[in-house]
Amino acid sequence: MANAKEFFSGNFLKAENMKGGEIIEILDDGSVEEINTPEGKTKTVLNFQVKLGDHEMTFTPNRANGMAFIDAWGENTEQWIGKRFKVVLVDTLVFGKKRKSIVAEPILASPVLKI
After folding, report:
1. CATH number of the domain within which 43 lies
2. 3-state SS string over 53-88?
3. Total domains in the fold of the chain
4. Residue 14, class by beta-carbon neighbours within 10 Å (0-12 exposed, 13-18 middle, 19+ buried)?
5. Average model confidence (pLDDT) for the chain?
6. Which residue range forms the structural domain that includes residue 61?
7. Least packed by Cβ within 10 Å: which of 41, 59, 89, 94?
């Protein structure tokens, strides 16, 4: 049986709940979901379970964020598990309305210097 509270919790990483500068960790390799857009079209999205502090939530990267992750960590999302990104907030047009959006800046591992 599904826990209805979890199903309807709205536990998504959203720009309106962020200040900017938060560090988010990716916890899984993603799951595919079909959603309906406000225009009535069907769109396929890739959702990730992520961690912010002690809280786990769902993050649905937009195309720009997804491409930034691919550039940083490769095309295989299994390699993204445990990777972190920084939240940057920007104003964007989403479905014709201005709102804050998350730009994910991948955090790359610092090289270890051998002396």
Report:
1. 2.40.50
2. CCEEEEECCCHHHHHHHHHHHCCCHHHHCCCEEEEE
3. 1
4. middle
5. 88
6. 12-106
7. 41
